[in-house]
């Protein structure tokens, strides 16, 4: 009792660098758990190891976070197995399970401003976007899948041998068991929701590893899951770099292709993968130019370009190419770069320093190969990991920046000859990825022709970045397999 009172007084006097305590940020009191979450409670890593999570706005340390060890993974998997096979979760009526997920969504909504604040300082997301998308869609995802809990059922199948003995065949859909989930750093809470909501709705238990650089909203989510009444062991959160474990029943991964191969080849498990992208966006001369400029910029700069479906390469018809570039640059000059907690900020810092360094190198390669740097390409001269929104033109098909994903605020533009629909389609599909794509045109026949031939899991027509919890999401080729969201 005395120890708890002492900590309370200490934290209220010193409101910076909180560790598993409270802090005054964004005109509110924010509580940020910082330990491993195993079997329904927070605890230090088995070996006591910790690491620092950094605020990308100024490079300061937010707090120290437990760094999970192999032993912690063992205990988390054991807890998840026990919760599935022996605990109340595995025996629970699906409708009751749905009620708990609805309650969890309600708690997330109740704490949405706190979650958005944590997301903003840990990932660099602009607060208004964090509130609407990072947190808002997470809440929608849990509510959507909570409604599916009691609607998962099998079929009755007629068979030739039914008579004279009246034989009957029917199927049951059963949970897989323990699922391992690895999520990325660009949408920390939303990716947690996309991966784990369906997993829990189906009756599985999970061991989740948040990205090492953005663990805080996942740990806050764990705290809310206890308040919602989710039984112990059902949800386990392990911050750190990750350790493999042989008992996982399913991998659900959003990451890069290298991680995919390590997961898939190490042992035989059911795997769902959402990986890289180099999504093409084709802008025809007959488009609504105002919309093409607005949506074209959003396709690249949304969430600082740290967006899996970002338009990695724009193809602009020759007759409107120069006008499009001129208008984009004009709008970029109006963009406010700054503190993501400032409501007027348009563009926040990149997620972490190593990523910023990679983006700057990406721009250097583009220049060396002969692309034209029209705007940006440099680090902003201020504390933190800020990058100027960037535009490259005259990008040829063989160039590195034409083929490789930047995952940052870099618009890569190539022109194509007027009327060469099939030619630009061939260039757009000449990529190892197939996550998303887009087309802007007023001609509905052209829109349908192009959308049918773009080799991507999602095709946006006269819009971009529109996703919904009821619509399936996923890609082809090296962009992975399996779907998130939807039935």
TrEMBL record:
The keyword Oxidoreductase applies. Keywords: Oxidoreductase. The active site is at 274. Residues 45-486 form the Aldehyde dehydrogenase domain. PROSITE patterns: ALDEHYDE_DEHYDR_CYS (PS00070), ALDEHYDE_DEHYDR_GLU (PS00687). It comes from the Eukaryota. GO terms for molecular function: oxidoreductase activity, acting on the aldehyde or oxo group of donors, NAD or NADP as acceptor. Belongs to the aldehyde dehydrogenase family. This is Aldehyde dehydrogenase 1 family member L2. It comes from Gasterosteus aculeatus aculeatus. The lineage of its organism: Eukaryota, Metazoa, Chordata, Craniata, Vertebrata.
């Amino acid at each position: 009792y005395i120890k708890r009172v002492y900590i309370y007084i200490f934290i209220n006097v010193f409101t910076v660098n909180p560790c598993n305590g409270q802090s005054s940020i964004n005109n509110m009191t924010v509580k940020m758990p910082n330990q491993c979450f195993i079997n329904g409670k927070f605890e230090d890593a088995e070996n006591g190891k910790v690491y620092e999570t950094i605020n990308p706005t100024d490079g300061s340390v937010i707090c120290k976070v437990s760094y999970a060890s192999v032993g912690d993974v063992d205990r988390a998997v054991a807890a998840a197995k026990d919760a599935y096979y022996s605990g109340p979760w595995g025996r629970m009526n699906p409708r009751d399970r749905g009620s708990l997920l609805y309650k969890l969504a309600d708690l997330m909504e109740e704490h949405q401003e706190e979650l958005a604040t944590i997301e903003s300082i840990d990932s660099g997301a602009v607060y208004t976007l964090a509130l609407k998308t990072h947190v808002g869609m997470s809440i929608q995802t849990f509510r959507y899948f909570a409604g599916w809990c009691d609607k998962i059922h099998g079929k009755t199948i007629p068979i030739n041998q039914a008579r004279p003995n009246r034989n009957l065949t029917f199927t049951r859909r059963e949970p897989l068991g323990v699922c391992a989930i690895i999520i990325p750093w660009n949408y920390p809470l939303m990716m947690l929701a996309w991966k784990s909501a369906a997993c829990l709705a189906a009756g599985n238990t999970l061991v989740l590893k948040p990205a090492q650089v953005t663990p805080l909203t996942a740990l806050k989510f764990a705290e809310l899951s206890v308040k919602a009444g989710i039984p112990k062991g059902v949800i386990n959160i392990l911050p750190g770099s990750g350790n493999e474990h042989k008992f996982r029943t399913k991998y659900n991964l959003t990451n890069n292709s290298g991680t995919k191969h390590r997961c898939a080849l190490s042992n035989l498990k059911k795997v769902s993968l959402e990986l890289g992208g180099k999504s093409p966006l084709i802008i025809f001369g007959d488009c609504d130019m105002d919309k093409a400029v607005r949506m074209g910029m959003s396709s690249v700069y949304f969430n600082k370009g740290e967006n899996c479906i970002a338009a990695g390469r724009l193809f602009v018809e020759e007759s409107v190419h120069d006008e499009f570039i001129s208008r984009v640059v004009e709008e970029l000059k109006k963009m406010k770069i700054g503190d993501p907690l400032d409501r007027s900020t348009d563009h926040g810092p990149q997620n972490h320093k190593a990523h910023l360094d990679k983006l700057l190198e990406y721009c250097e390669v583009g220049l060396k190969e002969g692309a034209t740097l029209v705007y940006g390409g440099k680090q902003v001269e201020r504390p933190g990991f800020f990058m100027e929104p960037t535009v490259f033109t005259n990008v040829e098909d063989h160039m590195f920046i034409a083929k490789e994903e930047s995952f940052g605020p870099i618009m890569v533009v190539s022109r194509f000859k007027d009327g060469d629909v099939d030619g630009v389609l061939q260039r757009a599909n000449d990529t190892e990825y197939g996550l998303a794509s887009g087309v802007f045109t007023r001609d509905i026949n052209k829109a349908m022709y192009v959308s049918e031939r773009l080799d991507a899991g999602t095709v946006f027509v006269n819009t971009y970045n529109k996703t919904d919890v009821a619509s399936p999401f996923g890609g082809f080729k090296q962009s992975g397999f399996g779907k998130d969201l939807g039935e």
